[in-house]
Write a structure and sequence with these properties.
Layout: E1 3-8, E2 11-18, E3 31-35, H1 48-59, E4 63-67, H2 85-100, E5 104-109, H3 111-120, E6 126-132, H4 142-146, E7 151-156, H5 164-172, E8 179-183, H6 194-209
Parallel strand pairs: 3-4, 3-5, 5-6, 6-7, 7-8
Antiparallel strand pairs: 1-2, 2-4
Helix pairs in contact: 1-6, 2-3
Length: 210
């Protein structure tokens, strides 16, 4: 997978391009941007959930771009509490659009689902959204809930950081019924359940292509 560099207001961001490993269905998004969990808690583009999402989207025929937020992994700059990180997401969407030559899917895990999806809502190139373990108890997901874009959500029933009942209450508030994958037998990191995360990503890509 080729390494890329993104230019942002914080300097250079490290990124990876996962090229398609399967055929594209001919309709739906051509690319996917995947955003990693909180940088101050060790989140990077190499996170196993992020890696799983990237591989699932690539197998669905999409060009995938995953990157390190400012101050994380191999990127320059410092953490900006989700403010400057929006510029990072925009730079990633621009780069992915250039690679894919078409519309995009925006996905994120935990913190990445908040800043990624909230930013993606502003961009007309985005056709669908995927949130994995969205921390609705920490961040404001009102704009995502109000969106008319197709949305898929994966959450752990035994998540130790994000109570499942709060995720369920948020899901009930969504203007458009999401594709929901509740996962049992794991916590926030989906140990032993990554196949279900990959399945949700593949399912959303297929739904957007139909």
């Amino acid at each position: 997978m080729p390494a890329l560099t993104l230019e942002t207001s914080a300097g250079q961001l490290a990124a990876l391009h996962d090229a398609p490993t399967g055929p594209h269905p001919g309709a739906g998004p051509r690319g996917a941007v995947v955003c990693h969990p909180h940088p101050l808690h060790g989140g990077t583009k190499e996170n196993k959930v992020v890696h799983s999402l990237a591989k699932a989207f690539a197998a669905a025929g999409l060009h995938v771009l995953r990157f390190d937020f400012r101050g994380a992994g191999g990127s320059e700059g410092s953490h900006d509490e989700g403010v400057g990180e929006r510029d990072d997401v925009r730079a990633a969407m621009d780069a992915c659009h250039e690679l894919a030559g078409g519309s995009l899917l925006l996905a994120g895990f935990s913190f990445g689902s908040w800043v990624g999806l909230d930013t993606g809502l502003e961009d007309r190139r985005v056709e669908g959204l995927l949130a994995v373990a969205p921390p609705v108890n920490y961040y404001d997901y009102t704009a995502v809930a109000r969106s008319s874009l197709p949305l898929a959500v994966v959450y752990a029933l035994e998540d130790e950081l994000v109570p499942a009942d709060q995720v369920q209450a948020w899901l009930a508030s969504c203007a458009r019924s999401p594709r929901i994958t509740p996962v049992s037998g794991c916590g926030h990191l989906f140990h032993g359940r990554l196949g279900l995360v990959r399945g949700a990503a593949a399912g959303l890509a297929a739904a957007l292509a139909s």
